[in-house]
Amino acid sequence: MDGITRTNDRRRPASLRLSELLGALSHALDLTEGQPAGHCLRATWIGLSIGRALNLPEFQLRDLYFTVMLKDLGCSSNAARLCQLYLADDIALKRDFKTVSDSLPKVLGFVLSHTGLRSGLAERFRAVMTIVRNGEALVDDLIETRCQRGADIASRLRFPPAVCQAIHALDEHWNGKGRPDRLVGSAIPLYVRIALLSQIIDVFHQQGGRDAALAEVRARSGTWFDPSLAACFEGVARDPAFWHTLASDQLDDTLFDLEPAQGVVTISEDYLDDIARAFAQVIDSKSPFTSGHSERVAVYTDMVAAEMGYAPDHRRWLRRAALLHDIGKLGVSNAILDKNGPLDATEWQAMRGHAGFSETILGRVPAFADLARIGGGHHERLDGTGYPRGLKGDAIAPETRIVAVADVFDALTADRPYRGAMPVPDAFDILRRDSVTALDPACVAALERTVLAMEGDLTRAA
Question: What is the pTM of this model?
């Protein structure tokens, strides 16, 4: 099997810049926040420009740079709850909420215009009343969940406490009316004051251009934003080169070249593992029904690869592919992911789109080209009935076949919105049936041997 030994054409991890790797993965965070592709990177350019105007030292610029780039690490953790509360598409909800200030009429108008639009009148009324009556407590809980998860994942990515604390404070406002801790003024970490400002600038610039962004900064100065930072941005905004770079198709490369050098780390194999596991947490937090899915698929993938004789370094690489194979699901609404019933044609098309999202995101990193093919192909089937390309037979790489079998096995043996977990023997009955035409029979047999052996070991140990 040629795919087992194809390892020499991959770039060494040490040749990667951290900004390049995390910048590519930040596009997944844009998806789940409903923002145009590149939002986190554009916000990073804005934040870096403000930091440089403030003459921050290099080590602070570096922490600021990654705070803004990864500000939305916790964004997937409240998606299911938002969808449930508002009876709405969580992605569209998050996208539109970023344009709402904290004035009561605007917040109430947002609730009325976004809640339960596809539900019955009685169900919609109950949802609106639940939000209105319990709004403050609900928002506190949603934001605390998001902020704490984001800080935890940043720590797993090996960022210093200053970055983790800033990500935890993303929704704090200068006037003390933000969350989760209702910090006031300069008690809010500087990095996050800049990050929040940068985020809103990009949202309004994307929607209405330079004038709209400047108007929003002025309108929220002293309430959401530190007035001194708002004034600093006014100075940045007078430079036409700033806006030119912000709108450039080459912004990614420009930004990566500007990664502050202080404390640059080597991306070792261990660090790549940590990054893959951290983003697997982001992916699996999207839905209660996918909790732990990526980790389990990685375990099953490794079991099959070991059984089939893959070398240790190749198994390690394949585990990363398995951890990240579903990153495109961050672009699928929880109204679809968590639906208790069959998907209609439109919903099914959206669900199928996650494989393409995975391939696009992972493909932004040259060293991840092979991972991208697995992300894009793990729903392909040997008989051509899979998606997104309908590949057949040898057109599906051996590694992709392994992840496909591991993915199906975990899907069958875990709870889903429409059914409970399936017993392992029943799952293998289905896998064996599908291995006649769709799944690789050698991979299915290898997984069954290892699972049965593991069950035997556990029985003997008991």
Answer: 0.92
